[in-house]
Amino acid sequence: MTSVPVEVSNFFLAMQVGCAGGEALAALFDEIAVYEEPFSGTVRRHEGRAAIMAAMALGWEIPMVDTRIEIRHAETTGGEVHVAWTCHSPSLPGGKGSGLNRFTFRDGRIISLITTLEEE
Q1: What DSSP designation does 56 have?
Q2: Which tens digits make up the pLDDT trace of 82-114?
Q3: What is the reported pLDDT for 64?
Q4: Greatest CA separation found in the chain?
Q5: 65 three-state secondary structure
Q6: How far apart are alpha carbons 26 and 4 in whole angstroms?
Q7: Average pLDDT, whole number, for the chain?
Q8: Which residues contact residue 79 at a Cβ distance below 8 angstroms, ignoring those fewer than 6 apart?
Q9: pLDDT for 31-65, tens place per residue?
Q10: Structural domains of the chain in order of their starting residue, each with its CATH number
Q11: What is the rounded CA–CA span in Å between residue 79 and residue 54?
């Protein structure tokens, strides 16, 4: 297991607190970053910090109570940081959900984030 870069730790900390972490979360993304996520049931691509934050804000409309994100594994491969995670919250079906984030950074900011979910 590779040590988790501070930017990745800060990303997950901001995600855990939801809307209150929005400003800190936005600061982690490059202005021209790309984010791909499956949370609406289909994979969607968001281009640019403003579009990414708009997508994040949709998720904050239904707050998840007592959210805790556990990093299960992290490794750096070919310039990307791959992080396997489990989100624990009684708001999720079965109380948890798991996935993988692939981060690419430039100058300390996220330039690309691709999220996939694991089947439970």
Answers
A1: H
A2: 999 999 988 888 899 999 999 999 999 999 999
A3: 75
A4: 38
A5: coil
A6: 19
A7: 92
A8: 104
A9: 999 999 998 889 999 999 999 999 999 888 877 77
A10: 6-117 (3.10.450.50)
A11: 27
